[in-house]
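Quick entry, no commentary yet.
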Amino acid sequence: MEFTDTQIQRYSRHIILSEVGGKGQKKLSQAKVLVIGAGGLGSPAALYLAAAGVGTIGLVDGDVVDLSNLQRQILHTTATIGMPKVESGRQTLAAMNPDITIKTYQHHVSADNIMGLLPDYDIVLDGSDNFSTRFMVNDACYFAKKTLISGSIFRFEGQLTTIKPHQGYPCYRCLYPEPPPAGLVPNCQEAGVLGVLAGTIGVLQASEAIKEILGIGETLADRLLIYDALEMKFRKVSRPKDPDCPLCGVNPRITNLGGDYHVTCTI
């Protein structure tokens, strides 16, 4: 494809980067990224993917916009309260960049529908707010051999990692083999979360996705990034592959999405 003069102007600050250039911008325009959750993490991630010119962005979310969302979910506005989040998000992203394709799926991802979504995308960003979905998405991406950028937030702390066991790296279960028991983690309303923390981690998810598309920089696939907003500290911890992992280990016990994914809220 050839960029128009308007597109060259839009992406000019990318194109002059030697690590991106015209070839890299074409890679972005041809990329397809699925964003799971049009909420706190998915909002900033999707906005920056759209601004960067990622050609196809899929938004999956079954909720509608609520007033309590607006403290952190910047895809939405007061005017879109009551609207499905995917439609509110589509309008915002289309206004940001009319050149891209935005596909919407007005339902929550589940073991019954996720495998039908993944073939159409290169990379998955998980912005879900519960352990049930996070483990299920990890397992589905493993079976579909899709790169997953996983982010999570809780109160004042955020975590981020890239998951691509199909390239020899550990999966999410190498770090956390099983979801925590129901009731151990405070529920979504009780725990709370610093609104701007969602922006920090969501933007970093977009950054990691763009690096994966372009094939530049260092991957987070063997490390976990932890951010403490109160102390303004970032640290990385090693995330080695677990040979006994129930999913990607030598003798896997999980061989399909038929497992029981208990919902446990994290924010």
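second:
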Amino acid sequence: MLYHDLLRPLLFAFSAEKAHNLTMAQLKVLQSSRLGRELLRLWAGEIASHPVKAMGLDFAHPVGLAAGLDKNAEAVRGFFSLGFSHVEVGTLTPRAQPGNPQPRLFRLPEDQAIINRMGFNNRGAEDAAKRLAKRNPHWGIVGGNIGKNKDTANEDAVNDYVRAMQALSGTVDYFTVNISSPNTPGLRDLQHEKALKVLLEAVAEENNRLGAIPLAVKIAPDLSKDEVQGMARLAVESGFQGLIATNTTIDRSGLRATAQRIQSIGAGGLSGRPIVARSTQVVEWVREAVHDQISIIGVGGVFHAQDVRDKLNAGADLIQVYTGFVYEGPGMLRNLQEAWKRS
């Protein structure tokens, strides 16, 4: 109640990006001391263990943090103190880049949604790797979400993904290839079969050279069933162990926010409650196509325990949250655990 009644109204009084930066700053302070970490654990509450084996890795329970919140791997320990079983950092590019001009992050409270066009703003993979190299593996599983720089042509994209992997090698437990953000021009073109095959095979080859950790690919929800299943099969053929369904959507149908509000925001990826059904459907499509050949991480619109159950029942092995955490706060995992506590 503290978050809903006091902290969220205070945070929502600021712009979305300002509130995000304030939250990250507080997490960085709290994670730096034993007392601070204990306060985070107390706030989150006790999270029941429910071991999950996915992508060949052991997770304490199904729910982790999606990429996008901790872009620069600055608050990993803080998020683990809040109870997440895994934290995916990034998206990280080989070179630092500022991202798109502000404002670029917008809340739609009436829809329990967020629209972002951040544009892979980050300080670069090497910068994040310095912090990740200091983490204790016992905290939990860390994934490195990687992408290409905005000014890198698609025909040269493979080099960016490889360079990001090289920078993060030895500091993360799995890599996620992000080809589905709508906020980097042309990025989603890499989802087309021919380009995707070249990219995934090159990433797999470099990963084997670096030490062969699990690989996942994150796909968009704005795809047909045939496209989704084709990508899933290609991921399996290329030696990937995971598929993340899904990234944000460019669809704006069914929103409660006014058309004027949506138009004033403009382009960007939509996340949150409006995407929950579509992302769960994509999970189902992937599982139908690849059976048990690959692990599936379900992302999109998770707010309540029933959302977790729905995605697990559709075929997901793991769940990730982002927008739900913004709206529900640090006590979110305590509520989500009802999805597995009684199973």
